[in-house]
Design brief:
single chain, about 85% helix, globular
């Protein structure tokens, strides 16, 4: 990995972390705000990452692609928060949350991939 790619991943990771903190702050006043923020961030992150990977971002250099895909989306989404919620909430809430997260994530990946493929097709025409 080259220095430019390392810097792009680090900067993308910092921005993804700030976006995630923003989501937590925006929902802090809501009941179960941390669960809502985590679900929203992971679902949007899955959608965005699937879009980026399906579209390929051909006009971006590879180092910037890594900064977006690995850095930003890697830090914006988190499995550890899902796992923590799943094991610390009452069993029905924890398992239900895990199921909703998985279904939403898979749906977001399918939608992001479809949007990315469609966008890639439009730019080639």
């Amino acid at each position: 990995m080259r220095l430019r790619e390392i810097v792009a991943v680090a900067l993308g990771g910092g921005l993804g972390t700030l976006a995630r903190i923003g989501a937590l702050e925006a929902t802090a006043h809501l009941p179960q705000g941390d669960m809502i923020a985590t679900l929203a961030a992971n679902t949007l992150g899955a959608l965005g990452l699937a879009f980026v990977l399906a579209r390929g971002l051909p006009e971006f250099p590879p180092w910037l692609h890594s900064g977006i895909a690995v850095g930003f989306f890697g830090s914006y989404t988190t499995f550890s928060a899902i796992a923590l919620i799943a094991v610390t909430e009452v069993m029905a809430w924890g398992w239900g949350y895990l199921a909703v997260t998985l279904v939403a994530g898979i749906g977001a990946v399918l939608a992001g991939r479809a949007l990315g493929v469609a966008a890639r097709g439009r730019t080639r025409s």
